[in-house]
Write a structure and sequence with these properties.
single chain, mainly alpha, two-stranded antiparallel sheet, 4 strands
Length: about 270
């Protein structure tokens, strides 16, 4: 047998195992996703907290632990990603760190008591990056509405940044929002914006969005589902179950990391 055929046989064997695994999961109606994990979505999941009459607690501490372990030496998050992704990753992780630090007096069992060093490194990175980042070249879906939203959330916590082309970014946001009324989310018609509800914090009433939940998720988006859990006044057990399933069954394999969409059964089978 020619040596050149060995790699082909190896690939054929891998493809066969992949097909068998997907068929087995689909047959047993198990949710799955082969997508790589997303720092951005993981950061939003890490911000989910729950309260009862006596106390409050972080629901997914493993996700917060994951982002703390994943920070780059320059203070950013993300490696082989675009500038827009790196900005969004770092903004969302910085927001999570500040929220954990701010709520530490209300959630006393927080094991991460010293977060200042990582927050300072992230802040230093963003101060430089936002001065040179050209948002007009971004191909990241919805970055023009997500970046301003997270900047606003950070500003509420006392963290502000100068941005080279903020006016341009806000113009992009306004241009897109002219074609969409956020209050349309209260209707029954599905909208692509349901995948990014974190962009509408303080804009829409999250209590009026529960009818869009499907099997505990907002359009299969961990970040959007997390935002719904955080900003809805009524806790939803199905949303919590969905996020726990994503942490357990997605590419993060229980580390706390989650992908940007879950499940992706139809999408992956269609491509195969």
């Amino acid at each position: 047998m020619a040596s050149s055929t060995i790699p082909q046989l190896h690939l054929a064997s891998q493809a066969d195992r992949l097909l068998q695994a997907m068929a087995t999961n689909a047959l047993h109606e198990q949710s799955f996703s082969s997508m790589s994990t997303s720092i951005y979505d993981t950061a939003w999941v890490s911000m989910v907290f729950k309260r009862d009459e006596d106390h409050e607690w972080w629901v997914f501490p493993e996700s917060f632990g994951y982002i703390l372990r994943s920070q780059n030496s320059d203070g950013s998050w993300g490696s082989t990603c675009s500038s827009a992704d790196m900005v969004l990753n770092t903004l969302s992780c910085l927001l999570s760190i500040h929220k954990h630090a701010t709520l530490s007096h209300r959630i006393p069992h927080n094991p991460y008591s010293d977060l200042q060093i990582q927050a300072d490194k992230a802040t230093a990175f963003l101060k430089q990056k936002l001065l040179v980042w050209d948002s007009q070249t971004s191909r990241h879906v919805a970055s023009e509405i997500l970046v301003p939203a997270i900047l606003h959330e950070l500003q509420q916590l006392g963290v502000s940044f100068q941005m080279n082309n903020l006016s341009s970014l806000l113009f992009q946001k306004e241009s897109r929002m002219k074609r969409f009324n956020p209050y349309d989310l209260y209707h029954n018609t599905p909208s692509v914006f349901l995948h990014s509800l974190e962009a509408f914090i303080g804009v829409v009433d999250f209590d009026r969005l529960s009818h869009h939940l499907v099997n505990g998720s907002m359009m299969g988006s961990p970040s959007s589902t997390a935002a719904y859990l955080i900003y809805s006044s009524k806790w939803d057990d199905d949303c919590e179950k969905y996020l726990r399933m994503v942490i357990r069954d997605s590419g993060g394999k229980g580390t706390g990391a989650v992908p940007s969409a879950f499940p992706t059964i139809i999408f992956e089978i269609s491509w195969v």
